[in-house]
Each structure stands twice: as C-alpha cells, then as structure tokens.
C-alpha cells in the first residue's frame, strides 16, 4: 500500500487521464497548434490568410499517452561513452542508479531552499548512486551524487544500471522513459505536467511528488517504493513492449503522411474541421447576445424596482387621495 503522502494533492484533484482526454484532447502539435483543444496559437496576420493546414504530426502514442494520436518518432540511442565520466559512474553503481533531471526549462537551482535541501538530503542518504542534472553550484556534496550540467538523456535511460528516473513530468521525457522501460517519479510544476503525472498514476508506471509539500522522508519513501516494488517496473516494461511493437515504424508513417499531403495538396480529408469554423461559432456570438439580453433584463428590473416602481406608487396614491377628497366634497 503506497502512503498517501507520496501522491500530490494537485494530481489527485484531476479525474482519470482518459476522462480528461475524451473531453479536451491536449495534443501539442508541432510546436504551433493544440488543434484538438481551444488553445490555438495565432500566426502573424499577413501569413494567417495564406495558410491552409492539412496535416499536423503529434508526437504521441496510443498506449503510453492517449488513444487517438500519432505515434512518437523513435530516436537512435546515443552511447554513454561520449561522456566517459558518466559512463564509469553508472557502470560502478552496484545497487543501481537514479537519474534526476527537471528538463531544460527548469533548473534545480531555481527551486526554493526547503524543497532543494530535502531533495539533496534524501538523495544523498540512498545507497543507490544518483546522476543529477544540475546547472550551478551545490553546497551539499554527497558521495553517491554526481552533478552534471548536460546529460545524454536517452543513453542514460538505456543504461542497465538506471532503475528510476525523477523528472518534471514533461511529455517527451515521459515518452523516453516508457521507451527504455525506466519507472518514473514525477514532480510536476506547470502546464501539461500535472496531466502527465495523473497518467503516470493511472498506468501504474511510477509515483508523483508535490513540490509544495515535499520532504526528505517522502522522497526516500517514494524512491524506495519504486525500487523495491517491481509492479512499476513490470508495468512500464509491458507498456514499452506495446509501444515498440508496431506494424509500421512511426518515422515511416510520418513520411507517408507528408508525402500523401504533397501528392494531394488540394484535398481536405485530413484538414482540422475547427479551422473552418464560422466567426459566429468561434466567438460564441449567440452566447454573448444571450448574456447581454439577460443583463439588460436584470438592469431593467433593478431600475424598475428602485426608481419606476416607487414613482408609480406615489403617483397612484396621490391620485387616490385626490379622488377621495373630490368625493367628500360632493357628498358635503
């Protein structure tokens, strides 16, 4: 049973990953479009009118990430021998090695002092060796930790001594971890990293930590669970085998789609239908008009209740009093 402290509150607040994907597919396509969601980055105005997107390639896979997307382009592994010191460090890891990296957008020296100290103390107390991608100076120097500014990541993940990967939950890093069957511990910070962390928990290929509540004890417990419980390793091995067992290689499939579009440049069967959405639907004009009408009715109600209604009541009372007075005069 995994302690609840190993799982972040932010990730647990999300529903299951497949439920999220069915309702808002977050396919980051070629760095320009999230074509299946409402987040669409704009081209410059002078270019926008001349562009007719026909094909967008998304680096994703049915088994590892989602169920209706393009398979990732597999990359040729790089030999660790290009970094001799890393190669020797991993080879001599008798109890295995843990690879720690937060990607290229976030460096560990940007972390708050509390979480950074907790990570250093926790990783330094392990019997496994730790390869830590860190671009800066670290005051704590544990004998089992090696700090490096740059890492040949795929080569490190392919090394047989690497038994766990601590990462930020980035999509491409997660794909590489799945490809090389290395269980993961995700520490999400922003963007789709929380969604990917939820997918990691759903697939049973790793655990997650919350950077806001991370402690030395939680890090040690999480890594101990990942290393000792072979369920995570078995799950990610199965997923890796599924990802690599394909009739057509992803690079060949991508090449075929590109050539297919070039062969039929005026065809629209691969075109994203949302691109042809009318401005009425794009800006939800009917919703704006409906909201405006309701607002006007509300304002009319407030004005009538506060101004018109009292004035009408005063006028009616004044007329009633005048009529009663005239009636009294006639009776007299």
TrEMBL record:
One GO cellular component, as annotated: membrane
Pfam families: UDPGT (PF00201)
Protein family (similarity comment): Belongs to the UDP-glycosyltransferase family.
Transmembrane segments: 280-303
Keyword Nucleotide-binding in record: no
Membrane-protein topology: Single-pass membrane protein
Keyword vocabulary terms for this entry: Glycosyltransferase, Membrane, Transferase, Transmembrane, Transmembrane helix
Superkingdom of origin organism: Eukaryota
Organism whose genome encodes this protein: Acromyrmex heyeri
Catalytic activity: glucuronate acceptor + UDP-alpha-D-glucuronate = acceptor beta-D-glucuronoside + UDP + H(+)
EC number in record: 2.4.1.17
Enzyme class: transferase
Localization in the cell: Membrane
GO molecular function, one term: glucuronosyltransferase activity
Name of protein: UDP-glucuronosyltransferase
């Amino acid at each position: 049973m995994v302690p609840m402290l190993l799982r972040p509150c932010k990730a647990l607040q999300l529903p299951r990953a497949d439920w999220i994907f069915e309702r808002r597919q977050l396919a980051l396509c070629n760095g320009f479009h999230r074509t299946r969601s409402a987040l669409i980055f704009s081209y410059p105005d002078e270019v926008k009118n001349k562009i007719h997107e026909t094909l967008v390639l998304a680096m994703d896979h049915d088994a590892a990430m989602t169920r209706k997307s393009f398979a990732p382009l597999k990359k040729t592994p790089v030999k660790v021998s290009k970094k001799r010191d890393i190669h020797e460090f991993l080879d001599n890891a008798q109890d295995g090695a843990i690879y720690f990296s937060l990607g290229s957008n976030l460096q560990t020296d940007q972390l708050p002092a509390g979480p950074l100290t907790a990570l250093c103390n926790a990783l330094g107390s392990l019997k496994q060796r730790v390869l830590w991608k860190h671009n800066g100076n670290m005051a704590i120097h544990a004998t089992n930790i090696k700090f490096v500014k740059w890492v040949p990541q795929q080569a490190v993940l392919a090394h047989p001594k690497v038994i766990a990967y601590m990462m930020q939950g980035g999509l491409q890093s997660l794909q590489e971890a799945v490809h090389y069957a290395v269980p993961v511990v995700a520490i999400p910070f922003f963007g789709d990293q929380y969604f990917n962390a939820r997918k990691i928990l759903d697939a049973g290929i790793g655990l997650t930590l919350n950077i806001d509540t991370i402690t030395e004890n939680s890090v040690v417990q999480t890594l101990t669970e990942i290393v000792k419980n072979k369920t995570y390793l078995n799950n990610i091995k199965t997923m890796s085998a599924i990802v690599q067992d394909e009739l057509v290689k992803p690079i060949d499939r991508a090449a075929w789609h590109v050539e297919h579009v070039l062969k039929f440049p005026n065809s629209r069967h691969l075109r994203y239908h949302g691109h042809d959405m009318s401005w009425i639907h794009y800006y939800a004009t009917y919703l704006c008009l409906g909201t405006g009408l309701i607002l006007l009715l509300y304002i009319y109600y407030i004005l009538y209740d506060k101004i018109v209604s009292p004035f009408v009541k005063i006028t009616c009372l004044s007329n009633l009093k005048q009529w009663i007075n005239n009636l009294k005069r006639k009776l007299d």
